[in-house]
Amino acid sequence: MGAPVIGKNRREKVCLVCEQEKEKGIFLFGHFLCIDCNQAIVQTNTDDPNYAFYVQKLRKMVASKIYS
Ligand SMILES: [Zn+2]
Fold this sequence. Notes:
This protein has 68 residues and is of the alpha+beta class. It is built from two helices and two strands. It has helices at 35-43, 49-67, and strands at 25-28, 31-34. It has a two-stranded antiparallel sheet with strand order 1-2. The structure holds zinc ion (ZN). Residues 15, 17-18, 34, 36-37 line the site of zinc ion (ZN). This is CsfB protein. Pfam families: Gin.
């Protein structure tokens, strides 16, 4: 499997969390995380319902790194 390579001249910067193409962000475990989601994760408390959502996304990211 593996992610399909789309586009020839530029690296796809589609955020793993919001699944939108963004200009600014960071690459984490080979996946793109936009600056908005990165900040949201940092600012989310562990008891916030959204935190579980982000953690799940990040786990997916880490898992794909392990299996790639
Ligand atoms: Zn995002």
